[in-house]
Amino acid sequence: MSDAIFTHAYDNGLVLAAQRMPWLRSAAFTLLVPGGSVHESADRCGLASLLSEMLDRGAGPRDSRQLVIDLDNLGVDRSGFVSAAHTGLGGAAPAENLAEALRIHADILRRPHLDETQIEPSRASVLHELRGIEDEPAQKTMLALRRRHYAEPWGRPSQGERDALLAANLDDIRALFRRRYRPDGTILGVAGKFDFPALRDLVGELFDDWPIGEPESIDEQPPTNGYQHLPYDSQQTHIGIAYQGIPYRHPDYFQAWGATGVLSGGMSARLFTEVRERRGLCYSVHASYHTLRDRAAVFCHAGTTADRAQQTLDVTLAELRRLAEGVRDDELARLKARMKSGLIMQQESSSARSSAIARDWYHLGRIRPVAELQSLVDGLTPASVNAYLAESPPTRFTVVTLGPEPLEVPRGVS
Amino acid sequence: MSDAIFTHAYDNGLVLAAQRMPWLRSAAFTLLVPGGSVHESADRCGLASLLSEMLDRGAGPRDSRQLVIDLDNLGVDRSGFVSAAHTGLGGAAPAENLAEALRIHADILRRPHLDETQIEPSRASVLHELRGIEDEPAQKTMLALRRRHYAEPWGRPSQGERDALLAANLDDIRALFRRRYRPDGTILGVAGKFDFPALRDLVGELFDDWPIGEPESIDEQPPTNGYQHLPYDSQQTHIGIAYQGIPYRHPDYFQAWGATGVLSGGMSARLFTEVRERRGLCYSVHASYHTLRDRAAVFCHAGTTADRAQQTLDVTLAELRRLAEGVRDDELARLKARMKSGLIMQQESSSARSSAIARDWYHLGRIRPVAELQSLVDGLTPASVNAYLAESPPTRFTVVTLGPEPLEVPRGVS
User: Fold this and answer.
1) A267–B72: do the CB atoms touch at under 8 Å?
2) Phi–psi pair at A385, nearest 5 degrees
3) What is the ipTM of this complex?
4) In this complex, which of B92, B267, B342 lies closest to A345 when CB atoms are compared?
5) Are A247 and A295 in contact (CB under 8 A)?
């Protein structure tokens, strides 16, 4: 499949990474722009999201309404997000509409109006998202955990903070746009049906006169870690536990990822079986692997009733510690079967592939073909995973709980 | 594409409906069993969900743990739901594992253990889902709206009611299983890579000795309609509005569906533009078309602050009424572009197709090829949609609000 993979780096730093899937009738694209929340100033947490909300509201020759009309006319099914590192914009459309969708997105990225009249509706929309999280105790717990576990600014919530969002004005928005919407660091992933030479020329026409940005550094703080309790008037308690992982580009990444998959992934994984099925302790429990470019973590969540919260925390921590004793062959075999299935599905979806190859470029500086992913997964053995676990056992946990009472957290956490 | 479509009806009523997508490496299946919430007794609302939760916890020769281990080993990405008419079970897997996944599902449907030891964890899980909805005011509003708009039992929430779920015992669960898990009315949709003669023989082997069930009728009550306010201590108000539609199998279905698409679908649709973008009244507003076999409705939701709730209700109702004046050519053209794109995506996913063809069989008694769907969408004109709207304008609204104060609802609603 690797002959279907193409990349092109333009002189100003913009990278086009593409995979042809000529049996499809669709094409999907993912634009990663280096304007994520780590690039906000600390007193403007949420500014990247506010800017992202403004982008659609008029760009190039189109006002806000014409822009959405034209994208709807192309049948573009859009997606967007703000992460720590990036603002992402993407879409999937019938293959013949890819070029026009990219033309409109060049206006969105390079020539948004960022118009005074659009700021209040944009702010209302971002504040509404934020209120939605306030109503979601599980999400609230996990955002606090992430903030505590990663050093600032990497743990910052992309949804922002209410006071900072209320304080942000058009100058702030325009300043972030000027600083961070730039070709150097921007990655365009495309997957589906397309002709690469034509695509490369089109992207050049749209983006190669985009000027490079100024160098910038990120001011990193040491993480807080330890234990934090968030009082919440409820009969339920949410528990978040984090420990350190290794990033995607680390050579041992798949060993670390495989260990987490044994813990949580599929219905036969350890946490689900031990904590939920056997002991009936809690309603939901899972762990997921999260990677940034230079750091990574495993984040676990358990939701339970207040009276079972202490036992749930104890049992979950015990399961995490038990991982250091190693994984079994049958556990790893199941994980590999699930992963193989997941890779097949990813390979059948232009949207999934366009976002995977853009992320590959960010983390690795190249596209990892599905066949290589498959062989990395195939190469996992209990011995290789256990060697990693022996060297890097889950330890030094960061814990956040949300509920009526704080819990007792073992020494070594707080 | 229609030469890729196969159906087979077994003597006991079970139907296999399949579409070959030989360029894929995956295969997906959707089982619709006639055991949805309309088949519960009124004092056991939620029993179908409780039964569905029990199915996985041991079936045939496998105990609860072995069952999930074996499905994980096959790389089956599972899905499930309970709707008014059906309990649905589905999965997608590498094509070579389809047969074994279906074998296990034959045990799940025909030989579940429904074991006493599994009832409390199952109940806890269903009650947890229910509590999740209690915390979601938007969903709570829409469930109350649906209940009020459709006649009982069609408006019943599949998540159930707390008291009914607490009262349900193993006898209730087993009785519902015996009555409603049956071949007559069960539809198996399959899409992806498979060999049809082998699939037909396998399904016959697994299911053709499954005995037909007893005839049953459903006791239908007249709907309540009118206006209902749910007091809720919040600064926000949620508004739900419903009006009658026509079901999928009605010859004018696409006209009615198209009118709703002009109202809400894509960012340039009327509700989003008028209510949210132009007037800044509310955070979210949308309408969606919902079809059962013999009835259908359009359900609208708007979420806003309490002080803007009355105006939001008035403006939204005015937009719904304005639909009777007809849709414009450009609005319909955008909708058709979006629909074309959606059909292309559906055609590229084995999961999406397996569920679409199972639903087609339920509603139409045949599979509608994507090409036919495309030509039905292509055939929509402002004249055809407007003829439908002139005859069946949005009227006789059912309204539910949730917030600190009831709203004033115009005559003709309550």
Assistant:
1) yes
2) -65, -40
3) 0.87
4) B92
5) yes
